[in-house]
Amino acid sequence: MATPSSSSSSAAAAGPSSSTLPPVPRATSVLVIGMAGSGKSTFAGALSDYVSQQAAQQQPAAAAEVTEETPQSSPAYIVNLDPAVNSLNYEPSVDIRDTIDYKRVMEEYNLGPNGGILTSLNLFTTKFDQVLGILERRAAEVDQIILDTPGQIEIFTWSASGTIITDSLASAMPTCVAYVVDTPKTTAPATFMSNMLYACSIMYKTKLPLILVFNKIDMQTHDFALEWMSDFETFQAALQKGNATDNVDVAGNLSGARKSTGDGSGSGSYMNSLMNSMALVLDEFYNNIRAVGVSSTTHEGMSDVLSTISAARQEYLTEYRPELERLRQSRVEKENARKKEEVRRMMKDLRVGGKGGNPAGGSGGSRAEDEDKEDPRVTAMMRGEEDYDGNGTLLDPDEEEYMGQGAAQGQAGQPVRRGPGATGGISIDDGTQWPPAA
Ligand SMILES: Nc1nc2c(ncn2[C@@H]2O[C@H](COP(=O)(O)OP(=O)(O)OP(=O)(O)O)[C@@H](O)[C@H]2O)c(=O)[nH]1
């Protein structure tokens, strides 16, 4: 839930009105990503329920002192992006299954289950601009927009459609990734390390604030994970207790079949030393990452999740958004420079063989000087200062307006004809003719 303080700081971070980005909306979008069965859907539904309960509790109390500026909590908005899910523990506001029939996609394209999910997501992404339009409207009314992703993690994280969805969302509103970890299944050092490397790669790829959500803490506390992340030596000690793939219970005892050899090397010594090195590499990741423990079934830890989402929103505003703004600005500048260069080349071409007049505004100076000068008409058109019909609408060549424009430039009120059999050519009002007369 975005707190009042986060809302006001969002407005401040929205930056000057010259920003090329849309204003910062009230909502934060949360992309729920995680390994199959980690509890993504259960977590998405639980988060939404929790936000609704909070809203219900807060609103009667706030009713007496409500002003127009008071931000009100409201239920989250959920998007289901998993086309293959059978049943959900929440009612999605937007559901990929309403648009795409995953089983039919499999039949039509002769695909297996994963190919079917990927193709369904690709097809859905072609409509994502419409979905984004809906989400942008909703972003003014709710605090959270939760997106539940497909079960197979790589279908979303390593596909073009996943990237398009993530990037579009992140350009429209504050966005963070909630990386859901199945805590009871992560007590083996090797599984833990794999999960952390995956989370790190997602953060690296999306560049978005990431929250590690240790789920299912009703079954297994996540304290061991926090300890491994904050103290390298405890992770090393867990490795030395035995094979890296053996589970370590809460008290640090091995629960796997193979027990420690007692010599401290463990049976997979190459793997252990590799993981030792990787744990050191991940140190920087651990130092800066936000981690929370939650039970999606009992709602334990949900309030921590909400405050962590608020912190992630702040990180988006202070780090991701300025970078996005800078990239947009440089893209706009490059595009303007490209257009300017094209116009300059076009004007140069028009001068070739032209009679006397210089459409680029030259007036007898050297050619190099003329090339550097801007034609005021062109400059005005590029800046949109002149009455210029370049509004993106395709002009119908048969329409009067178009013929009229030609007629103004053609001979004796005759429209200019182009293409095969054209006789008029292009005439510029200072007398230059293209193509030049033979
Ligand atoms: N005990 C407990 N079980 C949970 C919790 N969260 C999810 N589960 C269970 O874990 C199983 C998988 O949960 P889902 O929400 O379907 O997981 P998912 O990641 O969305 O699954 P896929 O999308 O199919 O990969 C279900 O049986 C849930 O009931 C939790 O916090 N505690």
TrEMBL record:
Residues 367-377 have a biased composition (Basic and acidic residues). Residues 1-25, 349-438 are annotated as: Disordered. InterPro entries: Gpn, Gpn1/Npa3/XAB1, P-loop_NTPase. It is an enzyme of class 3 (hydrolase). Its EC number is 3.6.5.-. It is found in: Cytoplasm; Nucleus. GO terms for cellular component: cytoplasm; nucleus. GO terms for molecular function: GTP binding; GTPase activity. Keywords: Coiled coil, Cytoplasm, GTP-binding, Hydrolase, Nucleotide-binding, Nucleus. Residues 1-20, 404-414 have a biased composition (Low complexity). Belongs to the GPN-loop GTPase family. Small GTPase required for proper nuclear import of RNA polymerase II (RNAPII). May act at an RNAP assembly step prior to nuclear import. Binds to RNA polymerase II. PANTHER family: GPN-LOOP GTPASE 1 (PTHR21231:SF8), XPA-BINDING PROTEIN 1-RELATED (PTHR21231). This is GPN-loop GTPase.
